[in-house]
Amino acid sequence: MGAPAATSPFPWSEVMTFGLGRLRWPPDVFWAASPREIIAASEAFRAAPAYEPPARGTLKALMRDHPDNPGEAASA
Fold it and tell me: Are the beta carbons of 76 and 60 closer than 8 angstroms?
């Protein structure tokens, strides 16, 4: 049997800062939350995947098909 894997202590400070500070959860809500619930809440703060912007022609077609003011004619 090999040596046990090294573990690091639970990052209480970071988790508490996130839950109590960033999420603004009251202490009773924070302490009642499970680690999975805290992780799920943190997913909302993850960076969204980067997407390529639409090509100019695609954007113009979208603007034509979905105008901000449907009663006005597109000026493009």
Answer: yes
Classify residue 40: in a domain, yes or no: yes
* Cα-based distances in Å from 13 to 16, 21, 22, 71: 5, 11, 13, 55
Residues of the domain holding 24: 13-49
- Least Cα distance to 76 among 65, 60, 62 occurs for 60
What's the structural domain count of the chain? Answer: 1
User: Rg for the chain (alpha carbons), in Å?
Assistant: 24
pTM of the predicted protein model: 0.53
Tally of CB atoms within 10 A around 67? 14
The DSSP 8-state label assigned to residue 44 in this structure reads G
pLDDT in tens, 52-76: 889 999 999 999 999 998 776 555 5
